[in-house]
Design brief:
- The complex is a heterodimer of chains A (188) and B (234).
- With 188 residues, chain A is an all-alpha fold.
- Helix content of chain A is 79%, strand content 0%.
- In chain A, α3 packs across α7.
- Chain B contains eleven helices and seven strands.
- In chain B, the strands form two sheets. Chain B has a four-stranded parallel beta sheet.
- Chain B starts with 7 loop residues before the first strand and ends with a helix.
- The chains are: A mainly alpha (188), B alpha/beta (234).
- The interface between A and B is large, with 45 and 72 residues.
């Protein structure tokens, strides 16, 4: 894994934030993963980014979720996965790290009923959110969709609603009148 | 005798077709094709992204079928339909893939900025250019446009967003010169001006442009206002 010191710090702070039920801190930590994920495009870095963002969203609604069957087991697996991930990075064991991160997704697939529906939706939206962040960072739409395993259909409408992307001054590479003229000339 | 030689082509990236489909504007798309008098092409890689992959996902199965219908009706065609073999496109795509993804570096990493569908559009454009066929790439996402039209802007964006020093192999920029791009917003402007859009309301151009923006076309509010000003001129 690349930039492992940074990811280790993020996971350790994630653990503390979960203990303190601090979803705001988790969202902040998740944002810190964007740079590393877009720069390295390392699958484990991306998985950490998605997991931390998803956990922040889940904790935001924990009051509701914790009443649902399966919550306790799911929560335990999340904590265990974070601990195992921290341990794997400290012991420089990339295989174990990947397994720990995968265990979070497996835990989601083992859920049932409403909790499964909600949590799956949170993870799917987290993937799209992270993809749009990577697009915002300058990677292409297709590249980010492929890194995050989302469709271009998902990403297009999500990214289209982010002013950080469409309004960025760097985007303007040709004046709009010239582009219209180019298009009109082709239709002559 | 009818001359079958293709003289002009619009090459569509996934992002622009997706935008027409998500906005339910495929009749306007068909109208544009009729008014164009040339070919609308997509590459094999783009077809995978907008037909094959989504056809396996329930949420987007219908959109995939709608795009497939455009292919069945020959509104959209493949390069082979004008005699360009996939192999020819693939060879140039590989070159573009390697160069584009080894142009910008941050903290020792080559930043992989683009993927095969987008690369194949550039490859096809280059190939058609060599054959003397006038062409434009229709693409709504911004990274490719920045890479080709203002690569220094892309370097600045990467630097600003990734908070790290970005080194660029500026010699590579040459490979990305000479491409011409439009977006779905420019196409819908033409559809509006030519009366292809059936909706009649004084706000229709505004509504169309924002619909494309919100479904992924990288266009600013300021640019939309400029297009609207042009649209309102008689």
């Amino acid at each position: 894994m690349q930039e492992k010191e940074n990811v280790l710090r993020i996971l350790e702070e994630t653990k503390t934030a979960i203990d303190n039920n601090d979803s705001l801190k988790l969202k902040n930590l998740s944002n810190q993963t964007n740079n590393t994920a877009s720069l390295t495009q390392d699958p484990d870095n991306i998985a950490v980014a998605v997991a931390v963002y998803s956990i922040s969203k889940i904790l935001e609604r924990a009051e509701h979720y914790r009443k649902l069957p399966g919550w306790k087991e799911f929560y335990k697996i999340i904590i265990l996965a974070i601990n195992n991930s921290i341990d794997a990075i400290k012991k420089d064991n990339p295989k174990k790290l990947t397994e720990s991160l995968i265990s979070i997704r497996k835990a989601v697939s083992k859920l049932s009923g409403k909790l499964k529906e909600y949590v799956q939706d949170v993870f799917r939206k987290a993937q799209i959110n992270k993809a749009s962040k990577l697009y915002e960072h300058g990677l292409s739409m297709e590249k980010t969709a492929s890194l995050l395993g989302v469709t271009l259909f998902d990403l297009a409408s999500y990214a289209g609603q982010r002013p950080e992307i469409s309004e960025a001054p760097f985007n303007r590479t040709l004046d709009v009148r010239s582009r219209i003229k180019t298009a009109l000339d082709m239709f002559k | 005798m009818k001359n079958n030689k293709t003289e002009k082509v619009l090459i569509f990236d996934s992002s622009s077709i997706i935008n027409f489909v998500l906005n339910g504007l495929l009749e306007e798309f068909r109208g544009l094709k009729k008014a164009f008098g040339g070919k609308f092409l997509i590459t094999e890689e783009v077809k995978k992204e907008i037909v094959e992959k989504p056809s396996k996902i329930k949420r987007f199965e219908l959109e995939a079928l709608k795009i497939k219908a455009l292919l069945d009706e020959k509104i959209l065609e493949m390069p082979l339909d004008i005699g360009v073999k996939d192999q020819e496109v693939s060879e140039i795509t590989n070159d573009i893939h390697y160069t584009a993804n080894n142009t910008f570096f941050g903290r020792g990493n080559a930043i992989h900025i683009i993927d095969s569908g987008e690369e194949s559009c550039l490859a096809l454009s280059k190939l058609l250019g060599k054959k003397g066929i006038k062409n434009l790439v229709v693409i709504d996402e911004r990274t490719i446009r920045m890479l080709c039209e203002r690569p220094e802007n892309l370097a600045s964006l990467l630097h600003k967003r990734m908070h790290t020093k970005i080194e660029a192999k500026t010699d590579n920029f040459k490979l990305f010169e000479g491409f011409k791009f439009i977006r779905s917003t420019e196409l819908i402007y033409i559809a509006y001006k030519k009366g292809i859009v059936k909706l009649k309301n004084h706000d229709v151009l505004d509504a169309l442009l924002y619909a494309f923006k919100f479904n992924g076309c990288s266009i600013s509010d300021e640019e939309i206002n400029e297009i609207k000003k042009m649209g309102n001129k008689r």
